[in-house]
């Protein structure tokens, strides 16, 4: 149970189409509709809301694989309703016209599908232009193909990626969103179930001038090199480059891959780590599809419906869940059966409710603490300590959290016996001014003072949740509920 070591050891300063749907673990149509209904309506967010969600656009929250070197940086964020999101921040002056930006984003926001990372909002304030989408926690296709840690992406999962992305593109086409900008392995992301989704960010240009391709020119469609324009057939070409990535497990320029295909050296194209996982006929069919997509003349490339028809028969393990194929541990969040009002407030990150509860609780969980102070020898030092505590409590009551932190910090130094309540109050004060790491430290110190104090665990859960460490936060809620139940039973007996 010792959070001080075990729970935070790794803490860091923070979808139509004619073929049938094959989502393995949610094939039920009702479930799919239910999932879609959970996606919030597209809305405009305030800049302050998104700044708060990303901890001031902290570098610790950047999820772009190239970090802050990317021209448009993507951050992980958490909204006040506890929803995790991805926030794309465009470079300055990419979209000078705020109304045009919002109109473009709203258009993309109407395109909803279970195979897309759906766009749920935008922001255009001052020079800032931001997009807000669902958050995908299990990295990009690029990471799983080119930078894997334990196991290479298996063949069946690669086929599933090809099919799911074809579904997303086909849906976009039917919704008259036939242009997808710069389709590549970075634009495919995996959700908590390990299912691949196509980022909705690619449905919108990176800037008003339409400069759409940021990848190596060797991978861009020939017509873009000739005219600087993207057409619907350009998306099919880029899909072909993704097929090459899936087949080879590495970046292969289309010109080189086509030379291998024309020379019938298909095996030289295949990822050696996939040996024994696929039938040669299936690999050949996927290679042939890539070849069709990569035709130099746009009119010779297939459409999205052809992609679906070609890839669907290659799936041989439709019933196996994606996270199983990928070897991912699927975390199922189960809330404790018993949470006190304080635990519930921390679980929903309701800082105002937490503040009210701590005020009402006072120091009563520290038996004898206040009496101990009153019986000490009456010295000037003790009087100063009592006054410091009094001023700290008044500031905390009046929500002057910076002053409360100052007074409580002085009190911590002065007291010979540390107070868990003081650490708890200072922890919440730190949370109120967006300093979650310091709040976590104080909540841990409160646990040291009273090892089985539910309040200390609930405040740690709150701080961890603010830092985006959901699994650890859930552990803390569970621990707090356990000690709550233990205390309740002891009182009853």
UniProtKB/TrEMBL annotation:
InterPro entries given in the database record: BSK, Kinase-like_dom_sf, Prot_kinase_dom, Ser-Thr/Tyr_kinase_cat_dom, TPR-like_helical_dom_sf, TPR_BSK1_C
Coiled-coil intervals: none
Domain of life where this protein originates: Eukaryota
GO molecular function, one term: protein serine/threonine kinase activity
Subcellular location as annotated: Cell membrane
The protein's name: non-specific serine/threonine protein kinase
Native source organism of the sequence: Dillenia turbinata
Region Disordered, residue ranges: 1-39
Tagged with keyword Mitochondrion: no
Reaction it catalyzes: L-threonyl-[protein] + ATP = O-phospho-L-threonyl-[protein] + ADP + H(+); L-seryl-[protein] + ATP = O-phospho-L-seryl-[protein] + ADP + H(+)
Biased composition (Polar residues): 28-39
């Amino acid at each position: 149970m010792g959070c001080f070591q075990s729970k935070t050891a790794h803490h860091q300063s923070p979808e139509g189409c004619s073929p049938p749907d094959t989502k393995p673990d949610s094939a039920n149509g009702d479930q799919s509709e239910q999932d879609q209904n959970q996606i919030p309506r597209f809305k405009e967010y305030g800049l302050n809301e998104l700044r708060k969600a990303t901890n001031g656009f902290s570098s610790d929250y950047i999820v772009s694989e190239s970090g802050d070197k990317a021209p448009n940086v993507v951050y992980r964020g958490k909204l006040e309703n506890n929803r995790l999101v991805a926030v794309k921040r465009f470079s300055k002056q990419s979209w000078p016209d705020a109304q045009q930006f919002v109109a473009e984003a709203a258009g993309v926001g109407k395109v909803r599908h279970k195979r897309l990372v759906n766009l749920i909002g935008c922001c255009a304030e001052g020079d800032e232009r931001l997009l807000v989408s669902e958050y995908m926690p299990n990295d990009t296709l690029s990471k799983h193909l080119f930078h894997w840690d334990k196991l290479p992406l298996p063949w069946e999962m690669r086929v599933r990626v090809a099919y799911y992305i074809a579904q997303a593109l086909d849906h976009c086409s039917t919704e008259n969103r036939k242009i997808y900008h710069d389709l590549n392995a970075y634009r495919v992301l995996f959700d908590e179930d390990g299912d691949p989704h196509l980022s909705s960010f690619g449905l919108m240009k990176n800037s008003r001038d339409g400069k759409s391709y940021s990848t190596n020119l060797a991978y861009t469609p020939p017509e873009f090199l000739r005219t600087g324009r993207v057409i619907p057939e350009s998306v099919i070409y880029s899909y072909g480059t993704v097929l090459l990535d899936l087949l080879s497990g590495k970046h292969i320029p289309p010109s080189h891959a086509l030379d291998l295909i024309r020379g019938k050296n298909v095996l030289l194209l295949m990822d050696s780590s996939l040996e024994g996982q696929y039938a040669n006929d299936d690999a050949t069919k996927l290679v042939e599809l890539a070849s069709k997509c990569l035709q130099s003349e746009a009119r010779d490339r297939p459409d999205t419906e052809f992609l679906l028809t070609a890839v669907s028969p290659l799936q041989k393990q439709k019933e196996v869940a994606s996270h199983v194929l990928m070897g991912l541990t699927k975390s199922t969040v189960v809330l404790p059966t018993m949470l006190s009002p304080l635990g519930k407030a921390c679980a929903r990150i309701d800082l105002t409710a937490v503040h009210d509860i701590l005020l009402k609780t006072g120091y009563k969980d520290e038996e004898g603490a206040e009496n101990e102070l009153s019986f000490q020898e009456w010295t000037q030092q003790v009087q100063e300590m009592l006054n410091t505590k009094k001023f700290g409590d008044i500031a905390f009551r009046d929500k002057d959290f910076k002053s409360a932190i100052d007074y409580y910090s002085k009190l911590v130094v002065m007291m010979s016996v540390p107070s868990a309540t003081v650490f708890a109050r200072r922890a919440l004060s730190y949370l109120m001014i967006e300093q979650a790491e310091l709040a976590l430290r104080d909540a841990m110190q409160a646990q040291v003072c009273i090892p089985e104090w539910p309040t200390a665990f609930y405040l740690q859960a709150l701080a961890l949740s603010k830092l985006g460490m959901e699994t650890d936060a859930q552990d803390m809620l569970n621990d707090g509920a356990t000690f709550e139940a233990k205390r309740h039973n002891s009182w009853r007996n």
